[in-house]
Amino acid sequence: MSSRESILQAIRSIPRAEKILPDTPDFKSQGELGVLFTKALEANKAEVMDRTQFEEWMEKNQSTRVFSYSEDFQKYSSVILPEDPHELENLQLAILEGQFGVAENGAIWLEDKELPHRAIPFITEHLVIVLNKTNLVDTMHQAYQQIGANHSGFGVFIAGPSKTADIEQSLVIGAHGAKSLRVVMI
Question: Where does this protein have coiled-coil stretches (predicted)?
C-alpha cells in the first residue's frame, strides 16, 4: 500500500459523529416583493420597466443586431440563432426570459431551457430579461429551494449589468457581461 493510501485509510477509519445542521429560519421580506425587487435592481444599476415602456424604448433603440428568445417580443429579433455561439460576438441586444426574481437582491434566475446558448447573457452588449411579476421570491434561501433538484445543468443569477474594478478601484462596466440590464415586468 502506498503512503497516500495508508494516510487516506487512516483518515477514513477515524470515527465521526453525525452533526445535525441547524434549521434555517424563514426570513421574510420587509415589504411588497415587487417594490423591494425594483429597488434592489435599481441599486444594482439596472432599469425596470413594464411592457409599454419597453416597447417605447425599443422604438427609439438603434440596435440592429437583436436576438429575442422571448415569445412576447419575437418581433424585435433580427438575428437568427447560429449553431456556433462565437458568431454572436457582435450581438447588440439580447431579450431573454427569467424564471424568477429574488426581492432581497434583485437577482434573476436564468436556466438552460431559457438560454439557447449559455454565452448569450454575457456576450451581448445590452441585456433585457422579461420576468413575470408573480414569479418573485423573498430571499436567496427561497430561491435555492425553488431551484431544488430540478436544476437542468446550467443556471445563473443575474442582478445587474457587469461591473468589476481593478486594484485601484477603477470601475469598469461590461467587462465580463452586458453593459446594461433592463428588466421588463409583465
Answer: none
